[in-house]
């Protein structure tokens, strides 16, 4: 007798369905019939997908309450800051303050500077003698993070930025990151004290990092702004250098 796909044992069905992309599973397969919906919602299916895509580690077993959500977050995870390393000029950035001789892009290591620890980074943005600040506004829904996910799961939001001075000039660096509601109300903010670097420093690249956890429900946007200026008012580009900014959401894999 002909067997239909519905006659397959559950473990075989799990194996087959786990090969499909998330979108197909949730938008199509889950609606086929009761049995398929049951299988698509099985922990084993999402665990299998995590294994296939390299998101699975044995040590996670006890800590993960929802493998489906865990898979989705891993699958979506990427840097939400566009053009973080100045490869596309100032594209995607809003220049909020552009004073002195204005923002400029230079190649690493730059005059009186150092290379980045990450050899994949080749350029940086540099500030002048007047305030230079630039920002990006990230719309979470556009990036695949739906409202219910943000409100119920509150996945970790990790922000990182790299900054450096040049050896021969003092400067200051500032960072502000805000989690905003749909009406752009600030629900949570990371705004550390500005970093002031004296002249004749080691000019090394330093990373600043912050993870938002257990933030309020209702986050719909993330606003990222950084910049600064030199502290000696020298014409040209002697201020803080920034590059390799990132915002990632979800589990630390």
TrEMBL record:
<dbReference type="GO" id="GO:0005737">
    <property type="term" value="C:cytoplasm"/>
</dbReference>
<protein>
    <submittedName>
        <fullName>FBX6 protein</fullName>
    </submittedName>
</protein>
<dbReference type="GO" id="GO:0019005">
    <property type="term" value="C:SCF ubiquitin ligase complex"/>
</dbReference>
<feature type="domain" description="F-box">
    <location>
        <begin position="2"/>
        <end position="49"/>
    </location>
</feature>
<dbReference type="GO" id="GO:0006516">
    <property type="term" value="P:glycoprotein catabolic process"/>
</dbReference>
<dbReference type="InterPro" id="IPR036047">
    <property type="entry name" value="F-box-like_dom_sf"/>
</dbReference>
<dbReference type="GO" id="GO:0061630">
    <property type="term" value="F:ubiquitin protein ligase activity"/>
</dbReference>
<feature type="domain" description="FBA">
    <location>
        <begin position="70"/>
        <end position="251"/>
    </location>
</feature>
<keyword id="KW-0833">Ubl conjugation pathway</keyword>
<dbReference type="InterPro" id="IPR039752">
    <property type="entry name" value="F-box_only"/>
</dbReference>
<dbReference type="Pfam" id="PF04300">
    <property type="entry name" value="FBA"/>
</dbReference>
<dbReference type="Pfam" id="PF12937">
    <property type="entry name" value="F-box-like"/>
</dbReference>
<dbReference type="InterPro" id="IPR008979">
    <property type="entry name" value="Galactose-bd-like_sf"/>
</dbReference>
<dbReference type="GO" id="GO:0031146">
    <property type="term" value="P:SCF-dependent proteasomal ubiquitin-dependent protein catabolic process"/>
</dbReference>
<dbReference type="InterPro" id="IPR007397">
    <property type="entry name" value="F-box-assoc_dom"/>
</dbReference>
<dbReference type="GO" id="GO:0036503">
    <property type="term" value="P:ERAD pathway"/>
</dbReference>
<dbReference type="InterPro" id="IPR001810">
    <property type="entry name" value="F-box_dom"/>
</dbReference>
């Amino acid at each position: 007798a002909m067997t239909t796909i519905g006659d397959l044992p559950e473990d075989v069905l799990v194996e087959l369905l786990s090969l499909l992309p998330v979108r197909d599973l949730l938008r199509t397969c889950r609606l086929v019939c009761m049995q398929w919906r049951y299988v698509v919602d099985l922990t084993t299916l999402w665990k299998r997908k995590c294994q296939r895509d390299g998101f699975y580690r044995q040590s996670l077993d006890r800590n993960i309450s929802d493998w489906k959500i865990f898979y989705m977050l891993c699958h979506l995870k990427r840097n939400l800051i566009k053009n973080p390393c100045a490869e596309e000029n100032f594209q995607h950035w809003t220049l909020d303050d552009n004073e002195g001789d204005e923002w400029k892009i230079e190649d690493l290591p730059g005059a009186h500077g150092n290379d980045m620890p990450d050899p994949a980074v080749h350029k940086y943005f540099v500030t002048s003698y007047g305030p230079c600040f630039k920002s990006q506004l990230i719309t979470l829904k556009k990036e695949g993070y739906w409202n219910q996910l943000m409100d119920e799961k509150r996945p970790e939001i990790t922000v990182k930025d790299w900054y450096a001075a040049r050896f021969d000039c003092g400067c200051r660096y500032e960072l502000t990151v805000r989690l905003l509601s749909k009406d752009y109300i600030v629900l949570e903010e990371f705004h550390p004290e500005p970093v002031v670097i004296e002249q004749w420093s080691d000019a090394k690249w330093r990373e600043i990092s912050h993870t938002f956890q257990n933030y309020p429900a209702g986050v719909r946007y993330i606003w990222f702004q950084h910049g600064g200026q030199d502290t000696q008012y020298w014409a040209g580009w002697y201020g803080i250098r920034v590059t390799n900014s990132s915002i990632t959401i979800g589990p630390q894999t």
